[in-house]
Specification:
Length: 642
C-alpha cells in the first residue's frame, strides 16, 4: 500500500508543479474537480500511510540503528580488548599486581572476545595465578583450553599454553606431569618456525632439568637458545635466552674460580639486555649473580651495592623470592666479616620472605644459616631447632629430586616408545592416503581399480614383510653382541637399571656377577683371534645354561661379562657363580684344534638400602673381581667392605 500512495503522490506533485504555470482562476476551474476526486478516493490511504510512517518506520529505523550500533560497539570492544591484552603482555613480569587487577576487569568480557583473544587472556590469567601461588587456578584454564582443537592459525597459542603448563607443573613440583608435557612439547618446537615459542619452550626445558640437577641437559637447551640470540628481534626474548644460558653456566661451573670473571661478565651483559626490555625480575637476578661472584672474590662493598640495587628492584615488582636470596647473601657477607648479630637480622628477613613464597630450596639455605649463626652466638637450643628443620627440608628435597629423576627416566622411555608408535602410525596414514588417492582416480574404470588395488595389496604385503624383517634385524644388531649372541653393554645395563628400580621399590635383593677370563690375551697371541672368538662364544654358551629366564647376561667388553640377577640374594648369586666357574673350567678345547685350559675370575655384589642406582653395585662387583685377580685364578669373591 505505501508504494501505491507514493506513486499517486508523485503524480500529484508533478501535476501541481505544472499547474503553477496557470493563472489562479484557470487552476481552480481545471483542477479542483480532480483534486476533490483524488482526496475522496485516497484519504484513508493517506491516513494509513501517515500512521505507518510515524509508527513502523521509526521502529525499523531504530532496529537497524541498534543492530548497527551493537556491531560497531562490538568492534570497538574487541579493539579495546586487543589494546588491553597487548599492554598487559608487556608488563606481566614487571607488574604482576597491575596485571591481576586488569584481568579482573576484563574477565566479564571473555564471551565477547574472539578465539585468539580468549587464548591470550587464558595465558595471562594462568601466569598471574602461578605468580600468586594458586596451582589450580593456574593449571585449570590451560588444561581446559588444550583439550579443545586448535586451528592452524592459532597453533602457536597451543605451544605457548603447553610451555606455560609445563612451567607451572615444574614450579609446583609435579615433575611427572611436567616431563610428560615437556616431551609432548619439544617435538612441536623442533617443527615450528617461531623464535619466540622456541625461546620460552627451551627456557622451560632448561629450567626443569636444572631444578632436578640434570645440569648437562639444562646446559644443552640453554646453549641452543644462546646460539640464536642474534636472530631474536625482541629485546625481551634476548633477555630470557641470555638469562637461561647464564644461569645454567653458573650452576654448572660456579665453583670453578677460573670462570668467575667470565660469569661476572655474562651477568653484566644480562643486566644490559634486560634493562632494555625493562624486565626488572631478571635484572634483579643478574645483580644477585654479580653479587655472588663479588662475594667469592671477597669484594664485599661492591657486593653490598649490587644486593641493595637488587632489593630495590625486587621490592618494586614485588618479587619475594629474590628478596629472600638477597638477604641470604647479605647475611653471608656479614658472617664473613664476623658481624653475626647483623647477619642474624638479615637471615630472619630472608626467612620471612622465603616462607611467604614457600620456596623449599631457599628455606633450606635459610635454616642452615640460622643454625650456624645461632651456634656462633651461643644460642645452641635455637641452633638445634633450625638444624632439625634444615635436615627435614633437605630430606624432602632429596626425595623430590630422586622421584623427579625417576620420573624423567620413565617419561623418557615412554616418550621413545610413543615416538616409535607415532612413526609407524604416520606410515600407516601415508599408506591410507595413497590408497584413497588411487581409489579416487580409478572410479571411472572398475576393472583397472581392482587390478591396481590387488597390486597395491601385494606391494604393501611385501613392504610390510620386508620392514618387519629389517626391523628385527636392526633391533637385534642394536641390542645383542654380534659375536656371542648375548646382550651388549648398553642394552643389558639399561634393562638391568630399569629392573633394579622396580626391585628397589619392592625391597627385594638385586645381585650382580662380574667375571672375566684368565690370560685371554695369551690365547689370542698364541692361537690367533679366531681361537679367541671361539673361546668367547663357548664361554657364553656354557654360562648361559646356568642363567635363569629373569637374569640378564651381558657382554661388557673384551673378555669381561656381567650377569644381572633380579630378586636374588648374595648366597644364591654365589652358587650360580660357582656353577659358572665349574662349567667354564670344564670346557673341552680339543675340538678347537688346540689343548689349553679356560678359567675365569668372578666378583659378586648385592644391593643395599643406600644404593640409588645400579652403578654402586657394579663398582663393588668390580672390586670383588679385582680381589679375585689378586688372590688366585679360578676364584669367586664376594664384595666385603675393607
Amino acid at each position: 500500500m505505501p508504494n501505491i500512495v507514493l506513486k499517486n503522490s508523485m503524480t500529484f506533485d508533478i501535476s501541481f508543479r505544472y499547474s503553477m504555470r496557470l493563472k489562479p482562476g484557470e487552476f481552480v476551474r481545471q483542477y479542483w474537480p480532480l483534486l476533490v476526486a483524488f482526496l475522496g478516493r485516497n484519504l484513508h490511504k493517506l491516513f494509513n500511510f501517515s500512521l505507518i510512517v510515524w509508527v513502523v518506520c521509526p521502529a525499523s529505523v531504530m532496529a537497524d540503528y541498534s543492530t548497527h550500533t551493537a556491531h560497531h560497539n562490538s568492534q570497538i570492544n574487541r579493539e579495546t580488548i586487543d589494546e588491553s591484552l597487548s599492554s598487559l603482555e608487556l608488563i606481566r613480569s614487571q607488574s604482576p599486581e597491575v596485571v591481576s587487577n586488569q584481568l579482573l576487569t576484563l574477565s566479564p568480557k571473555f564471551d565477547v572476545m574472539n578465539r585468539e583473544q580468549q587464548y591470550r587472556f587464558t595465558l595471562l590469567q594462568s601466569h598471574s595465578y602461578a605468580l600468586s601461588g594458586d596451582y589450580l587456578g593456574a593449571s585449570g584454564p590451560l588444561i581446559t583450553q588444550l583439550a579443545k582443537p586448535f586451528s592452524e592459525k592459532n597453533a602457536k597459542y597451543r605451544i605457548s599454553m603447553m610451555t606455560l603448563l609445563t612451567n607451572i607443573y615444574s614450579h609446583f613440583d609435579y615433575y611427572a606431569d611436567a616431563l610428560k608435557t615437556l616431551h609432548q612439547l619439544l617435538p612441536l618446537l623442533a617443527d615450528v618456525d617461531d623464535i619466540e615459542a622456541k625461546v620460552h619452550g627451551y627456557i622451560v626445558a632448561a629450567g626443569i632439568f636444572g631444578k632436578i640437577e640434570l645440569h648437562e641437559e639444562a646446559l644443552k637447551y640453554s646453549r641452543a637458545l644462546f646460539s640464536k640470540i642474534d636472530k631474536m628481534k625482541s629485546a625481551r626474548n634476548q633477555c630470557f635466552a641470555l638469562y637461561s644460558y647464564v644461569d645454567s653456566i653458573h650452576v654448572a661451573y660456579g665453583d670453578d674460580e677460573a670462570r668467575f670473571l667470565q660469569i661476572q661478565s655474562l651477568y653484566g651483559d644480562l643486566y644490559r639486555y634486560c634493562a632494555i626490555a625493562n624486565e626488572k625480575m631478571i635484572m634483579s637476578s643478574s645483580l644477585l649473580g654479580q653479587a655472588k661472584i663479588l662475594f667469592y672474590l671477597k669484594d664485599f662493598n661492591n657486593a653490598r651495592k649490587k644486593i641493595d640495587e637488587a632489593i630495590t628492584l625486587s621490592t618494586e615488582i614485588p618479587y619475594l623470592l629474590d628478596i629472600a636470596r638477597a638477604y641470604i647473601l647479605l647475611s653471608e657477607i656479614e658472617r664473613a666479616e664476623n658481624n653475626n648479630k647483623l647477619a642474624l637480622i638479615y637471615i630472619n628477613n630472608a626467612l620471612e620472605a622465603a616462607l611467604k613464597v614457600k620456596e623449599e630450596e631457599v628455606i633450606l639455605l635459610v635454616y642452615k644459616s640460622l643454625s650456624e649463626i645461632n651456634e656462633k652466638l651461643g644460642m645452641t637450643d635455637k641452633a638445634l631447632v633450625h638444624l632439625k628443620l634444615h635436615q627435614q627440608y633437605r630430606e624432602k628435597i632429596l626425595d623430590r629430586n630422586h622421584n623427579a629423576v625417576i620420573a624423567f627416566e620413565t617419561t623418557k622411555l615412554d616418550y621413545l616408545e610413543k615416538e616409535h608408535q607415532i612413526r609407524y602410525l604416520n606410515k600407516d596414514r601415508e599408506l591410507y592416503t595413497a590408497k584413497a588417492e588411487l581409489a579416487e582416480s580409478q572410479r571411472n574404470n572398475e576393472r583397472m581399480m581392482l587390478i591396481l588395488i590387488c597390486g597395491c595389496l601385494v606391494v604393501l604385503t611385501l613392504f610390510a614383510i620386508n620392514m618387519t624383517l629389517q626391523k628385527r634385524k636392526y633391533m637385534r644388531l642394536a641390542q645383542f653382541d654380534v659375536l656371542t649372541g648375548i646382550f651388549n653393554r648398553g642394552t643389558g645395563q639399561n634393562l638391568a637399571e630399569n629392573r633394579y628400580i622396580k626391585d628397589s621399590m619392592s625391597g627385594t635383593d638385586f645381585s650382580v656377577i662380574l667375571f672375566d677370563l684368565d690370560d685371554f690375551k695369551r690365547v689370542n697371541n698364541n692361537y690367533g683371534h679366531a681361537m679367541g672368538d671361539w673361546v668367547l662364544k663357548k664361554v657364553c654358551e656354557v654360562v648361559n645354561k646356568e642363567c635363569r629366564s629373569s637374569d640378564i647376561f651381558t657382554r661388557f667388553g673384551g673378555e669381561e661379562f656381567a650377569i644381572f640377577m633380579p630378586n636374588t640374594s648374595e648366597s644364591v648369586a654365589r652358587e650360580v657363580a660357582e656353577k659358572c666357574k665349574a662349567r667354564v673350567l670344564a670346557i673341552d678345547t680339543r675340538y678347537s684344534g688346540h689343548e689349553f685350559t679356560i678359567s675365569a675370575r668372578f666378583g659378586i655384589s648385592t644391593s643395599t638400602e643406600k644404593d640409588l642406582s645400579l652403578d654402586p653395585i657394579l663398582q663393588r662387583a668390580d672390586i670383588a673381581m679385582y680381589q679375585s685377580k689378586q688372590q688366585a685364578r679360578e676364584r669367586v669373591s664376594v664384595y666385603t667392605p675393607e
